[in-house]
Structures are given as C-alpha cells and as structure tokens.
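Try this one yourself first.
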C-alpha cells in the first residue's frame, strides 16, 4: 500500500513535469482577453475620452489614479484569499463578471450626475472615479487568479514560459482588436458634441466586452482547475507566510524588473496618442496605426518566444536585449524632430519587439521566484501587481497634472515640454533595466 502511494506521487510529478499540450496553452492564454482588451481601452482612450467630454487633465488623471489604487490594493487582498481558499477559475469568473458589468459605465454618461441633476466637474470626477474603481477591482481579481495559475498548471519551466508568452500574444491580439473596433466606430459615427463622444466610446466598450467575454468562455471550458496546488498542500501541511517573501532578495529584484517593465509599457501606451498627434504633428490615423504596428511586432515576437527552450540565463539575456532595445528606442523618441515623424513607424517596430521581450521574460521571472512554493504564489503575483498599479497611476497623475498646469497649457505645440519629456522619461526608465536584472 505504501509503495502504491509513492508510485502514484512519482507518476503525478512526472505528469506535471512534462511539456504542456498546445490546446491547454492556447485556452489558458485566451483567459485574459477580456482584461487585455478593456485594459488597452483604459490606457489608450480613458484620458482622451475624459478630456474630450470636458474634464481637465488633472481631474482625468484623478479618475485613472482612483482605478489604479483600487486595483493595487485589491491584488494584495485577493492574492491572500486565493492562497488560502484556491478555486482559481471561480475567482476568474467572478472578476470577469464584474469587469463586464462595470466597464461600459467607465466610458459612458455620469450616473451620479443624472441622479443629482448636476454636471459639475467635481461630481463628474467622483462619478467616473467610482466606476473606475469598481472596474479595476474586477480586473485585479481576474488578473491575479489568471497569473497565479501558471505555477499550478505545470512544473515544466519551458511550459511556464510558453504560458506567459501565449498570454502576451493574446494581449497583442486584444490590443489590435480594440484598435480595429475603434477605427470602425470612429469611421461610421461622427462626433459633433459631448453626447456623440459618449455614444462612440460606449459602443467601443460594448463591443470590447462582447469579444472579451467570448474568450473568457473559451478559457473556462478549455482549462481545467489546477490540481497541482492541492497536491502540494497535501504534502506540506503548513502554508507559506507572506512575510517569507520579504526575506528573499530575489523578491525585490523581480519586483523591480516587473514594475519597471509595466511602467514603461503602460505609460508609453497611455501617452502615445498625445505624442504622435500633438508633438510630431502626425495625422489622426497615426493614433491607431502606430500602436497597431507596435502590437503586431509584439505578437510576432511573443509567438516566436513560445518555441524556445528556456533557462534562467536565457531569461536574463532576452530581458536585457529588450531593455537595451527600449533604451535606444526611447532615445530616438526623445530627439525625433517633427519633420522626420515618419521614422516613428520604424521606431514602433523596435518598441513592439522590446515590449514583448521584456513582458514575457519579466512575467516568467515571477514564476522562477515562486518555484514550487505554490501555497504563496497568488500573494507574490498580487503584491507585485500592487506596486505596478500604484507606480503607473502615480506616474500618469504627475504627468497629466503637469500637462494641465497653466504654464504648460500656454505653451502647447511643437515646443511642449511635457511631450518632449515623454521620450526622455521612457529612456530613463528603460536605462534602469540593465542593473535591475543582475541577480
């Protein structure tokens, strides 16, 4: 009887140590599509939408910051709950439902304004901030449950990177889908006033939610509830305390890498539309074309990364390559004159490749940090996401507040220091990567 039990454990370990199937990888990657497409809309169009309907850049930044703060604190709380109670798919389904029902209100009419019969800037800011917070709570629940599943699905390091790479590839698909939807809506429905603008973005939100929910269903049907965590808990009675991670040097190194990666990719995405139109003087189509080039390149690189056999030194090497590529791209953006704005399309190719290299390897470093300590994996992903969300929210708040100041507003045009600082900011942040991966 004892020998049979040992044999069962060995057989189970061998099963999880083997490579993961293609369908399992694809169905897992599809599980974050709703989050990805709504996140792309959040970072690309939220500030633009809020300023178009009359909010000041500072108030628009407050709305975004409220969502980022709610997201950050939720990741910590939910990560601890998932570690205690498990049921990844149940958490994922609940978070996806909250995202679906709240996102359209982020890009719609101000409900508190209708109830109170007032359209004051303060009431609008409070109203949009409330739904932004609700949306981000659901978004955080879905993200933490989905990301922490990686370590509980397989023990194979190459398969773990493949899962992260597939997830990133679907992120690129989500972004491209959003820009296709936005292009159709903007082309078919012309906006003449604030009401038309709200209708435009509401349709974008509805179509994004519908597409994302289709992929959520695919994930829930095609992905089995991970059993590896339950087996680890049976072997190890005591769970890992969250203070355990704060004693590890690797935790802080991975946190720095992951946070800087998200800071560069998210901040650049949020400010790109302003940069190409206001600073470089490119046409309105560039707001969709430049990001589309970035995400097409990121998608292709992500697909290639799935086919590589991974080790620790390869992760570091590819991450360094992406960081260096972003350094040169950021330097090019910071000095690019508006007379040579067509070079932005070439820089977009490099930025797309750099984004994929850093994102895939950065997320995979989290898996290395967790290793086989599955009882605390959700806390790791949640705590690192907490730092990521707060840093991005604060960075955008500072930059938007700076943009909305009287001195800057009176200096709009080709010499706008805010827009010049965009390229310099991403260059400085990218330059931190080389030291951040020295573990």
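Now uncover the answer:
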């Amino acid at each position: 009887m004892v020998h049979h039990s040992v044999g069962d454990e060995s057989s189970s370990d061998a099963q999880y140590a083997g490579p993961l199937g293609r369908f399992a990888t694809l169905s897992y990657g599809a599980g974050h599509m709703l989050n990805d497409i709504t996140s792309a809309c959040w970072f690309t169009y939220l500030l633009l939408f809020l300023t178009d309907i009359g909010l000041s850049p500072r108030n628009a930044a407050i709305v975004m910051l409220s969502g980022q703060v709610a997201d950050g604190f939720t990741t910590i709380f939910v990560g601890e709950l998932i570690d205690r109670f498990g049921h990844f798919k149940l958490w994922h389904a609940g978070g996806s439902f909250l995202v679906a029902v709240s996102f359209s209100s982020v890009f719609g009419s101000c409900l508190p304004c209708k109830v109170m019969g007032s359209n004051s800037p303060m009431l609008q800011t409070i109203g949009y901030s409330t739904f932004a917070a609700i949306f981000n709570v659901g978004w955080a629940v879905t993200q933490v449950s989905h990301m922490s599943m990686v370590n509980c699905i397989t023990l194979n390091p190459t398969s773990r990177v493949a899962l992260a790479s597939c997830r990133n590839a679907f992120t690129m698909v989500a972004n491209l889908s959003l820009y296709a939807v936005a292009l159709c809506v903007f082309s078919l429905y012309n906006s003449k006033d604030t009401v038309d603008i709200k209708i435009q973005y509401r349709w974008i939100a509805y179509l994004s939610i519908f597409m994302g929910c289709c992929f959520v269903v695919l994930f829930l049907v095609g992905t089995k509830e991970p059993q590896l965590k339950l087996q680890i808990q049976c072997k190890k009675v005591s769970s890992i305390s969250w203070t355990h991670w704060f004693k590890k040097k690797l935790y802080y190194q991975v946190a720095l890498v992951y946070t800087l990666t998200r800071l560069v990719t998210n901040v650049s995405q949020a400010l790109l539309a302003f940069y190409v139109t206001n600073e470089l003087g490119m046409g309105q189509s560039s707001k969709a074309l430049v990001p589309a080039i970035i995400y097409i390149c990121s998608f292709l690189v992500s697909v290639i990364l799935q086919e590589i056999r991974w080790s620790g030194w390869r992760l570091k090497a590819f991450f360094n390559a992406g960081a260096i590529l972003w350094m040169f791209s950021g330097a090019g953006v910071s000095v690019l004159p508006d007379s040579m704005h067509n070079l932005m399309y070439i820089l977009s190719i490099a930025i797309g490749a750099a984004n994929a290299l850093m994102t895939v390897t950065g997320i995979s470093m989290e898996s290395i940090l967790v290793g086989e300590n599955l009882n605390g994996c959700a806390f790791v992903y949640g705590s690192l996401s907490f730092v990521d969300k707060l840093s991005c929210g604060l960075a955008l708040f500072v930059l938007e507040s700076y943009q909305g100041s009287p001195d800057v507003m009176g200096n709009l045009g080709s010499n706008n220091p805010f827009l010049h600082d965009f390229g310099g900011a991403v260059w400085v942040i990218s330059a931190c990567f080389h030291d951040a991966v020295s573990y």
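Discussion: The CA atoms of residues 59 and 125 lie 6 Å apart. The radius of gyration is 22 Å.
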